[in-house]
Design goal:
Elements lengths: L3 H4 L4 H10 L1 E2 L2 E2 H12 L25 E5 L25 H13 L4 E5 L9 H10 L3 E6 L12 H7 L3 E5 L5 H8 L3 H14 L11 E5 L10 H16 L5 E4 L6 H9 L3 H10 L14 E4 L5 E2 L2 H5 L53 H4 L12
Parallel strand pairs: 3-4, 3-9, 4-5, 5-6, 6-7, 7-8
Antiparallel strand pairs: 1-2, 9-10
Helix pairs in contact: 3-7
Length: 382
């Protein structure tokens, strides 16, 4: 019997047609998506009240190995799928003082990986000092790069900087077809992304020797689950090499989270309940063992700590004295409740071991990480 989630998964044959065939009142899908992203900078429908309470299974932390830091929400793009609601008009960014506190924690901890994200993290003043310091500590460093940032004024030497410090690049490219990429990320984005990939290839990224790792990230263009990561990676490698002469090391397929901008789009198109139902029906308990939040913490631009980047966007911080929080509803906290305790900051965390075995705050959005083949910042889980 075919699993129900396989029946609704996006296939290679339908993926190319998705954006080309959908129209909204005579407006192309590309223009509709762009218009929505522009409106969402002014108003975003809040999906947080729709995610609690939740019956997602309780999970606990293991040993902390990865710190994912969001340097701020400013970006040179406004993408439909963005769970951060990032864009050019956002002003939040990490200060030098918070950078010092972040580096202090990295020196105290025994972490192996620093995962840098945003917004476009490269726009932040602390990006390069953070990379240099983390590499000096012997850490692996990942940069979640949107590719078009390589052409922004002041970033002309960015590709050289990344290669010099052997930074692993995680680059967003939601399709190898121009129509689909521009529909999700804005007109002209695809060609700019190709130029960025060629610039990285020219500096040694994406080669089989694995010295300079280049990973691409795929997100579905709508309210569907991503296809098989293994099969799609082979398709990407064939098409990008044949069409454009571009090479990369691996493809990461990520499910879209029903929060922030994408959650708002789901509500505005009356697809929120159906999409959440899809995620829940596709839940695979085996994926709970590999979800990223068990080994990772997310840190925001102010230095506050969260279980994951998605909880950061839902404003679900870790708090001092938190115990078993997996059933806690964060929507309407009562005075004196655990929600009123002080947010946990990097400066408060004297040892990463303090987080071991701690309960993780979960909600309905967490099904986005366990649906089907699973999804995390590192791609599929199964």
């Amino acid at each position: 019997m075919v699993s129900p989630w396989l029946l609704v998964i996006e296939t290679a044959t339908t993926r190319a047609a998705t954006c080309l065939n959908v129209t909204t009142a005579g407006v192309s899908c590309e223009q509709s998506a762009v218009n929505f992203c522009r409106r969402s900078e002014l108003f975003v429908l809040d999906s947080k009240p729709l995610l609690f309470p939740s019956d997602f299974p309780p999970i606990r932390r293991r040993r902390l190995t990865t710190l994912q830091v969001n340097l701020g929400y400013r970006c040179n793009q406004s993408c439909l799928h963005c769970h951060v609601d990032a864009g050019p008009k956002r002003s939040e960014e990490m200060s030098l003082e918070t950078l010092d506190e972040l580096l202090g924690f990295l020196r105290r901890g025994d972490l192996t990986l620093l995962d840098i994200t945003g917004g476009a993290p490269e726009l932040n003043q602390v990006f390069r000092p953070l990379v240099i310091a983390a590499r000096g500590l012997g850490m692996r460093v990942m940069d979640r790069c949107n590719l078009t940032i390589l052409e922004e004024p002041g970033q002309e030497d960015l590709a050289d900087f990344l290669a010099e410090h052997e930074v692993e690049v995680i680059a967003s490219l939601p399709c190898y077809l121009q129509e689909n990429v521009d529909a999700q990320r804005g007109s002209g984005t695809f060609e700019a992304s190709l130029r960025g990939l060629r610039a990285l290839n020219a500096r040694g990224y994406g080669r089989s020797d694995g010295r300079l790792l280049l990973s691409l990230v795929y997100n579905p263009t709508g309210a569907s689950l991503p296809p098989s990561q293994c099969a799609l990676e082979a398709e990407y490698k064939r098409e990008l090499k044949t069409r454009y002469g571009i090479e990369f090391n691996r493809l990461l397929t990520l499910a879209n989270m029903p929060i922030r901008r994408f959650g708002s789009w789901l509500q505005s198109t009356r697809q929120f309940d159906d999409y959440l139902g899809l995620l829940k029906s596709a839940h695979q308990a085996a994926n709970l063992e590999a979800v990223m939040c068990r080994d990772l913490i997310s840190v925001d631009w102010q230095g506050y700590i969260y279980d994951c980047d998605f909880n950061q966007m839902l404003d679900l911080p870790l708090r001092q004295g938190d115990g078993d929080l997996h059933r806690l509803s964060p929507v309407s906290p009562n005075p004196g409740s655990p929600n009123q305790r002080k947010r946990l900051h990097l400066r408060d965390l004297t040892s990463a071991e303090l987080l071991r075995e701690r309960s993780i705050q979960v909600g309905e959005h967490c099904y986005g990480c366990t649906a089907g083949q699973g999804s995390s910042c590192g791609g599929a889980l199964a």
